[in-house]
Structures are given as structure tokens and as C-alpha cells.
């Protein structure tokens, strides 16, 4: 089984939320980002790269990274206002050589079960893209094998790595999971409940 790390996209602008989403508190008391990172920490990912932006760092959004037991690196993205693809590209440029695959995670999806992450890791391969599916709905995180890292590092716009998925349909596999967390994100304050 290859070493699999996680890239967490955490440089968004929370336009629909109305305030800084990453710092919003969930019913258990953790922030949205903290809960997302704790779920990854409870999984078999080797280490974590968080793609963030300077304004959110100044607000303390990434301070929760200091509590993690797994190696976690913050990459401040230069052009996050141009879309998620730019943040992903900058994070992908610092993927360690020992990673055989990378889970691309969204910071506003704190309900993903660590066992789902482990299942994705177990099925990962350097020449495959694995997409989790819950009740016929595709979700996150998506696991990209090392063969796709260069393409991910050239991502642009607001579609993240969707263009990579589109180009490699025959090398993309779906994986059924019993986890509604893969399709449940935080867009508005009501989603915190």
C-alpha cells in the first residue's frame, strides 16, 4: 500500500456563509477546519498539506494545525482569489516525494468518517483516481495517484482537479462508501447543526 497524504483546500472566501467559515463552531465545540483535520488525523494518512491564504492565517484559522500529532504543513497560496484550482496547484507543488497518492479534501467537509478515508487509501494506486460514492452521489475526498500530481500542480480556475478527472475517465474508479459525510459540506450557518 503506498504512502498517502492529504491536501486540504482551506483558502476559500466563505461568500455564501457570510463570515469566516473555517472558524465557525460545530456543535461539539471544534471549528470547521479543526474537525476536518481531526478526522484526517484519526485516519491512515501519513501527513497533511493545508492550502490557505494570508488573511485567514492572520485571523487564526490555521492555529488548530499546531495541535495535530501528524505532520501538517501550511502553504499560503498567492492567487486563491482566482479559484480553488490555483490553491490546489500551489499545494501540489510541495507534495513530498514519498507520497504514492494524495487525497484532495475540502476544509468545509468536517463530517467525513476516518474509516472512509482509510478505505480510499486501501484502494489507492499510483495510476488511478478513486472517487467515493454515497447513494449514487460522488463526493470527497478524491484520491489521486502519483501519476496525476503534475497535472494537479497545473490546475487553475474554480473547478479544482475536475479537469484531471475529465481527461482520465478510463483511469477513474468509483468506490461505494456508507458515509453521507462525503457529500455534506458547510455552505451556510444552518449547515453547522
UniProtKB/TrEMBL annotation:
Known Pfam families for this protein? NTP_transf_3 (PF12804)
User: Which InterPro entries does this UniProt record tie to the protein?
Assistant: MobA-like_NTP_Trfase (IPR025877), Nucleotide-diphossugar_trans (IPR029044)
Q: Which UniProt keywords apply?
A: Magnesium
Occurrences of domain MobA-like NTP transferase (ranges): 6-168
**What organism does the record attribute this protein to?**
Pseudohongiella spirulinae
Which protein, by its recorded name, is this?
Answer: Molybdopterin-guanine dinucleotide biosynthesis protein MobA
A single Gene Ontology molecular function, please? Answer: nucleotidyltransferase activity
User: What domain of life does the UniProt record list for this protein's source?
Assistant: Bacteria
Amino acid at each position: 500500500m503506498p504512502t498517502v497524504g492529504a491536501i486540504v483546500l482551506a483558502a476559500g472566501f466563505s461568500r455564501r456563509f457570510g463570515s469566516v467559515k473555517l472558524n465557525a463552531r460545530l456543535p461539539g465545540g471544534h471549528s470547521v477546519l479543526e474537525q476536518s483535520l481531526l478526522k484526517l488525523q484519526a485516519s491512515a494518512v501519513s501527513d497533511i498539506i493545508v492550502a490557505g491564504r494570508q488573511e485567514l492565517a492572520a485571523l487564526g484559522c490555521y492555529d488548530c494545525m499546531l495541535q495535530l500529532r501528524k505532520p501538517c504543513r501550511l502553504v499560503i497560496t498567492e492567487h486563491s482569489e482566482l479559484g480553488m484550482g490555483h490553491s490546489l496547484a500551489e499545494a501540489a507543488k510541495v507534495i513530498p516525494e514519498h507520497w504514492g497518492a494524495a487525497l484532495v479534501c475540502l476544509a468545509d467537509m468536517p463530517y467525513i468518517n476516518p474509516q472512509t478515508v482509510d478505505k480510499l487509501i486501501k484502494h489507492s494506486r499510483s495510476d488511478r483516481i478513486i472517487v467515493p460514492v454515497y447513494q449514487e452521489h460522488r463526493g470527497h475526498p478524491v484520491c489521486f495517484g502519483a501519476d496525476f500530481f503534475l497535472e494537479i500542480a497545473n490546475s487553475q480556475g474554480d473547478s479544482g482537479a475536475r479537469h484531471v478527472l475529465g481527461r482520465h475517465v478510463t483511469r477513474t474508479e468509483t468506490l461505494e462508501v456508507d458515509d453521507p459525510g462525503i457529500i455534506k459540506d458547510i455552505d451556510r450557518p444552518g449547515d453547522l447543526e
